[in-house]
């Protein structure tokens, strides 16, 4: 499984909002400058993150983005799923996928299910607050 630029940028964006929203919503332009990410790309990501209920959007002169709930209640997995979609390592394990006709005889299905569980447990274990506590963020 390869996390794309969307997933990596989405995590950085949410962490930036968490670290910089103490005085109100964070401007997407400020995030773009601090994180050295294209503004247009961030505009697309913020829409996905707002739709997923992870960010709030405030319009106007002092508008921008803020976390929709405390950083301790947003996991890295939720952010990645909002940006990337399903994190399943193979198609047949994705939400809503048709059952594989080989599922009854597949010798590797147990392996893939185990990997899927490890991935989901790992990304679900870390919150935005945990990632903000990194020494690099201080």
Topology:
Blueprint: H1 5-20, H2 28-35, H3 39-51, E1 55-58, E2 64-67, H4 76-84, H5 109-125, H6 128-132
Antiparallel strand pairs: 1-2
Give an account of the 3D structure.
49% of the residues lie in helices and 6% in strands. The mean pLDDT is 93. The protein is elongated. It contains six helices and two strands. The protein is mostly helical. The chain has helices spanning 5-20, 28-35, 39-51, 76-84, 109-125, 128-132; strands at residues 55-58, 64-67.
| Beta fraction | 5-15%
How many helices does DSSP assign? 6
Mean pLDDT: 93
N-C termini distance: 30 Å
General form: elongated
Please state how the strands of the largest beta sheet are arranged side by side. 1-2
Taking all Cα atoms into account, the compactness measure Rg is 17 Å
Find the count of extended strands (DSSP E, 2+ residues). 2
How much helical structure, as a percent, in the residues? 40-55%
Outline the low-pLDDT stretches.
none
Which secondary-structure class do the elements indicate?
mainly alpha
Q: What characterizes the major β-sheet?
A: 2 strands, antiparallel
Oligomer: single chain
Order of helices and strands: HHHEEHHH
Question: Can I get a quick summary?
Answer:
The chain has 138 residues and is mainly α. It has six helices and two strands. Strand 1 and strand 2 form a beta hairpin.
Defining key terms:
single chain, 138 residues, mainly alpha, two-stranded antiparallel sheet, 6 helices, 2 strands, 6% strand, elongated
């Amino acid at each position: 499984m390869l996390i794309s630029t969307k997933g990596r940028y989405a995590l950085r964006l949410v962490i930036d909002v968490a670290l910089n929203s103490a005085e109100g919503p964070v401007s997407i332009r400020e995030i773009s400058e601090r994180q050295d990410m294209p503004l247009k790309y961030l505009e697309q990501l913020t829409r996905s993150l707002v739709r997923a209920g992870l960010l709030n959007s405030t319009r106007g002169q002092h508008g921008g983005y803020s976390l929709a709930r405390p950083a301790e209640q947003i996991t890295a997995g939720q952010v990645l799923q909002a940006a990337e979609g399903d994190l399943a390592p193979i198609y047949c394990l994705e939400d809503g996928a048709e059952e594989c006709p080989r599922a009854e005889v597949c010798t590797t299905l147990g392996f893939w299910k185990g990997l899927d569980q490890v991935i989901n447990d790992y990304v679900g274990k870390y919150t935005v607050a945990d990632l903000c506590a990194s020494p690099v963020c201080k």
